[in-house]
């Protein structure tokens, strides 16, 4: 089967000629174009144009109130970069994302190792996976509403704490900036660790058992096998997971919006970039908020590309280059021989 | 080595395994409680009155469901309407996005045409670009077309759903049969006929998983309708749920829980029956990217 790593696409496509069913591609150009036409048209109209329009709007002083708008150049960006709340929102988003992602990948990895362990033979793997995945399907707004109710002043959390004698009187949780950030991160963790777990279990079960067997024969212990076999084999899955989590995390909106007053209180501690953008939008200034949107796009894209670049599989790339060079050498040799004849 | 020491070694090994197994089950049960209890509390509290809720936490349902329902429906808060609006949007979005995603993926998988490889890689890149960042341009564009309170901007863009195409492509690779396509063509079947009458039925399990994810994504989507829609009677369910935060419901905690519960009910019911398919569908998409 062809490797479908995004970074490996070029190589894979170039070499697909020699693979079983692949060379039986059916050549019917016209039907192919007709079938992808709806996707392309709708993408251009509802996907690409809004991005271009966002860029265009960000260079104007357009508001919701007036019909006309004037070109103001980079003014929106300049005021944005001077705004300390904008920088704070970037910091908050990253902080909350990291507070959620590190425990998420850590716990998911640990549980995945346990569920796939051949010695432990844990029963009902499907059941555990199904339970842990459930929170991921719930409406984020509702989940945030639920946790908001649990941690209100007269809510269940305070009732339990007071009754158990852990605190003397009810706490006003949502006055604490650290608590609010922690709760957003916890909710994100709660909703996403099951998803990561399923992906990791799928990745681990697809690793060939013979690798572990021969490592065992060579006297490797479990820890070594995890570092030398499991982790490297999971690399594409981990990179994919990291990037999708980052892209999603940078867009964080529903939960911080619903949890407190919709503007990121207390102290703007859960004002993420999108909450900030929404606040600008509700104030009526489209130019300003479009500039925020573009900054989010810029941050997200640069970071995703950076992750792909830093975590790329250097060995595999080298191997592919070697193979290509070998094939080339082989061909030349072949040509020389036939030419010589 | 004498036989007794060997036996005790074996014993200690299996003892160690048993201890770690017990520990693992303990952790799994704790995580299960963490996942389930908040959801359970949500449903239980939606059947309790405000007084009951404030007097303490319990995991046993009470009898104030009807009372809470009356409270919530009398405050200019039409759950029925929101439910209907969300259903219309989610069902149409699901049909459009699944059909066109499978069609696009099928074209890329089966036919050879110029720009095909570019198209495929382009779609993979698009998966990573979220729609939300262009929401302001989208909003301004839609208000120019006078579509801000219409459902068209929420439904039609689903025709171009890169992540669905990505999943559909993964799935079709495992089930497209070229021989079958050739045979059908010899029998005089048209290209679209092959897609509708042969490939879609074969790809049913994948189409099904795709539909569930498309439906949930649309059902749970808050940001886009929140920016675009301003008329109360056009509000979707998440937009109504968001109103529960307000002062109107400060004293009706039971009603708030009920409103929250209603919004996640359909997804939970579907999940109870189809959890196995959903989890395996997710695993399928995970392994081969």
Question: Which terms summarize this structure?
Answer:
heterodimer, A: 341 residues, MetI-like fold, disordered N terminus, B: 289 residues, mainly alpha, 0% strand
Describe the protein's architecture and organization.
The complex is a heterodimer of chains A (341) and B (289). Chain A has 341 residues and is mainly alpha-helical. Chain A has a single domain, classed as Orthogonal Bundle (MetI-like fold), CATH 1.10.3720. Helices cover 72% and strands 0% of the residues of chain A. In chain A, helix 4 packs parallel to helix 8. The radius of gyration of chain A is 26 Å and the shape is flat. The relative contact order of chain A is 0.11. Helix content of chain B is 74%, strand content 0%. The radius of gyration of chain B is 26 Å and the shape is flat. Chain B has 289 residues and is an all-alpha fold. At the A-B interface, helix 2, helix 5, helix 6, helix 7 and helix 8 of A face helix 1, helix 4, helix 5, helix 6 and helix 8 of B.
Task: Tell me briefly what this model is.
The complex is a heterodimer of chains A (341) and B (289). With 341 residues, chain A is mainly alpha-helical.
Shape of chain B: flat
**Any idea what the radius of gyration of chain B is?**
26 Å
* H/I helix tally of chain A: 14
Q: The biggest beta sheet of chain A, please?
A: none
Question: Roughly what is the average pLDDT of chain A, rounded to an integer?
Answer: 86
Q: How would a crystallographer describe the biggest sheet of chain B?
A: none
Looking at this structure, what is the CATH superfamily of chain A?
Answer: MetI-like
- DSSP strand (E) fraction of chain B? under 5%
Strand content of the residues of chain A, in percent?
Answer: under 5%
Looking at CATH, which topology of chain A would you report?
MetI-like fold
Tell me the CATH superfamily of the largest domain in chain B: MetI-like
Low-confidence stretches of chain A: 1-25
The value of Rg of chain A in angstroms is: 26 Å
Label the structural class of chain B: mainly alpha
Structural class of chain A: mainly alpha
- What's the architecture of the largest domain in chain B, going by CATH? Orthogonal Bundle
Greatest interface (CB-CB under 8 A), with counts per chain:
A-B, 105 and 100 residues
Number of domains of chain B: 2
Assigned CATH architecture of chain A:
Orthogonal Bundle
Number of strands of chain A: 0
């Amino acid at each position: 089967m062809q490797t479908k790593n995004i970074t490996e696409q070029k190589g894979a496509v170039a070499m697909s000629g020699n693979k079983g069913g692949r060379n039986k591609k059916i050549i019917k150009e016209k039907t192919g174009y007709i079938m992808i036409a709806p996707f392309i048209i709708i993408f251009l109209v509802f996907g690409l144009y809004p991005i271009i329009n966002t860029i265009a709007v960000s260079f104007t002083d357009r508001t919701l109130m007036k019909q006309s708008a004037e070109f103001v150049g980079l003014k929106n960006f300049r005021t944005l970069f001077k705004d300390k709340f904008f920088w704070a929102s970037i910091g908050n988003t990253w902080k909350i994302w990291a507070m959620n992602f590190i425990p998420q990948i850590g716990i998911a990895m640990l549980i995945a190792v346990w569920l796939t362990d051949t010695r432990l033979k844990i029963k009902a793997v499907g059941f555990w996976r199904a339970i842990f995945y459930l929170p991921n399907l719930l409406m984020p707004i509702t989940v945030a509403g639920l946790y908001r109710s649990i941690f209100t002043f007269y809510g269940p959390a305070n009732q339990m704490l007071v009754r158990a004698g852990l605190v003397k009187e009810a706490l006003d949780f949502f006055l604490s900036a650290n608590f609010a950030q922690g709760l957003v991160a916890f909710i994100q963790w709660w909703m996403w660790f099951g998803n990561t777990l399923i992906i990791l279990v799928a990745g681990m079960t697809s690793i060939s058992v013979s690798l572990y067997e021969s490592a065992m024969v060579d006297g490797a212990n479990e820890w070594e096998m995890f570092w030398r076999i499991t982790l490297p084999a999971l690399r594409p899955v981990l990179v994919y997971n990291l990037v999708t989590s980052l892209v999603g995390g940078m867009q964080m909106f529903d939960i911080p919006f619903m949890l407190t007053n919709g503007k990121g209180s207390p102290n703007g501690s859960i004002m993420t970039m999108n909450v900030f953008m929404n606040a600008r939008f509700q104030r009526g200034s489209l130019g300003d908020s479009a500039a925020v949107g573009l900054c989010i796009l810029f941050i997200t894209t640069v970071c995703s590309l950076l992750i792909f670049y830093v975590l790329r599989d250097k060995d595999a790339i080298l191997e592919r280059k070697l193979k290509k060079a070998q094939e080339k050498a082989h061909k030349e040799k072949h040509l020389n021989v036939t030419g010589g004849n | 080595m004498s036989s007794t020491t060997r036996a005790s070694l074996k014993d200690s090994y299996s003892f160690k395994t048993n201890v770690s197994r017990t520990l693992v089950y303990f952790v799994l049960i704790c995580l299960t409680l963490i996942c389930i209890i908040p959801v359970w509390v949500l449903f239980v509290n939606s059947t309790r009155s405000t007084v009951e809720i404030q007097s303490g936490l319990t995991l046993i349902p009470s009898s104030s469901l009807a009372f809470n329902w009356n409270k919530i429906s009398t405050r200019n808060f039409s759950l029925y309407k929101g439910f209907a609006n969300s259903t219309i949007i989610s069902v149409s979005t699901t049909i459009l996005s699944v059909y066109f995603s499978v069609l696009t993926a099928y074209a890329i998988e089966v036919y050879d045409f110029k720009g095909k490889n570019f198209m495929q890689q382009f779609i993979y890149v698009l998966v990573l670009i979220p729609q939300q960042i262009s929401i302001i341009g989208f909003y301004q564009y839609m208000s120019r077309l006078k579509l801000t309170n219409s459902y068209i901007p929420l439904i039609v863009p689903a025709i171009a759903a890169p992540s669905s195409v990505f999943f559909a492509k993964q799935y079709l690779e495992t089930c497209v049969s070229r021989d079958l396509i050739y045979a059908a063509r010899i029998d005089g079947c048209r290209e679209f006929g092959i897609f509708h009458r042969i490939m879609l039925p074969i790809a049913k399990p994948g189409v099904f998983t795709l539909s569930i994810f498309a439906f949930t994504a649309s059902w749970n989507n808050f940001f886009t309708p929140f920016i675009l829609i301003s008329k109360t009677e056009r509000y979707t369910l998440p937009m109504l749920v968001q109103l529960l935060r307000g002062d109107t419901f400060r004293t009706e905690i039971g009603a708030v829980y009920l409103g929250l519960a209603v919004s996640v009910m359909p997804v939970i019911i579907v999940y109870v029956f189809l959890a196995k398919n959903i989890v395996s569908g997710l695993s399928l998409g995970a392994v081969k990217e």
